[in-house]
Amino acid sequence: MKIVNVNAYLLKVPYPDGQRFSAAWEVASTKEFTFTLVEVETDEGITGYSGMISKGFEVISFIESAVKEFLSRIPLDLFFIEMMTRPLRTGSYFGPRVGLIDIALWDIVGKALKQPIYKLMGAAKPMVKAYMSTGQIKRAQQHIKDFEEGKAKYGFKAVKLRFHRSRWEDDIKVLKEFRDIFPDVEIMVDANQAWTYFPPYWDGKTALKVAKELEKYDVLWLEEPLPITNLKGYAELRRSTSVMIAGGELEYGIFRIRELLENECFDIIQPDPNLSGGLTEMKKIAALAEAFHVQFIPHGWEPGVGLAAALQLIGTMPDYLCPYLEFPLDPPLTPEIRDAILEKPIEPRGGYVRIPDKPGLGVEINIDAVKKYTVKEIRRP
User: I need a surface site. Which of 59, 130, 215, 356 has the fewest CB within 10 A?
Assistant: First the structure.
């Protein structure tokens, strides 16, 4: 089986009724959910897909100008996925990250063998507990209302709140109100400090003050409380609090993750399969995490096809290594918007999500929806 074509598309799915999404980590709100979809076609009529959040045409341009030509010259059968690891690493250091190609190849292999990817890689479980991952800064009562609705519909038992108000003391006030209403819910906190564009910026002392407050409210983990360059600060913070320290969602590859683990930065590492080398690389990173007695809970703020990739990966890991799935849900971002190009959205039942059991990624792409939401690039003369 050979690759005959590689396509990449930028898609924008509008939020309903003119609503906007104000991400805690962004400067401006957005009126659409934007992502890149990659499509790899073979000479046997099997097509593989992958997708990730993006800003614009940067990934698409790189795939069209460099990756597509490279793949067309590969003489190997595409079942030799491991042979692609080093070229994809090199490409991702040179330009935008292209681990999406690895995921699309696994999707093809699964479809060819009529098995979901997680069973081909070595299945460990058929389902995983999902936590409701919010992304916006809202009033406490709105967070409470949103979670009550998510809990009633999907059975969530865990939630992640964002801390990025001007004063971290105000973040704590929101947490307290939320905890008072939900004394038995597992709560995670994401500070988005590792790569935030704008203030407030936390230093080590601030992060420690926040962590000590979180201990009072039985918060499970504090995510990315410091810049990604402050490895010493992370290690010191981790030693100084009983709250687990998590991070690594934008890190790339096994070599960087090894550095983080050797420096004892995290209790939980969170690289994204779609951003950090694909499923082949992620299995190696998961092995590193297990060897260092650290949990691996992948970042999952992705379109449905990207979430499906995270689920296939999670299905290969026992709960002691990966006990949770990050499930983005913060209106107006809902499964219907995130999964608009899937035939059926991915949804929890009773707080758990089943690993998709159909071949490949286990999800079906709605081609008409892809055509509907694809943005045509305007090229300058």
Answer: 215
Q: Give the tokens for residue 28.
A: 């401006």
| CA 276 to each of CA 52, 102, 146, 251, 258: distance values in angstroms, whole numbers, following the listed order | 11, 11, 31, 7, 13
Where does 17-61 show beta strands of DSSP type E?
Answer: 32-42, 47-53
Question: Can you spell out the DSSP letters for 164-218?
Answer: -SSSHHHHHHHHHHHHHH-TTSEEEEE---SS-SSS----HHHHHHHHHHHHHTT
Q: Which of 3.30.390.10, 2.30.29.170, 3.20.20.70, 2.40.400.10 is the CATH number of 3-115+364-373?
A: 3.30.390.10
User: 56-66 pLDDT, tens per residue?
Assistant: 788 888 888 87
CA distance linking residue 254 with residue 369, whole number of Å: 35
How far apart (Å, rounded) are the C-alpha atoms in residues 307 and 45? 24
pLDDT in tens, 28-40: 899 999 999 999 9
Q: What is the CATH number of domain 120-354?
A: 3.20.20.120
Residue 156 has pLDDT above 50, yes or no: yes
Length of the chain: 381
Going by their DSSP bridges, the two strands 186-190 and 158-162 should be labelled as parallel
Taking the model in full, what pTM does it have?
Answer: 0.95
DSSP H or E run through 159: strand 158-162
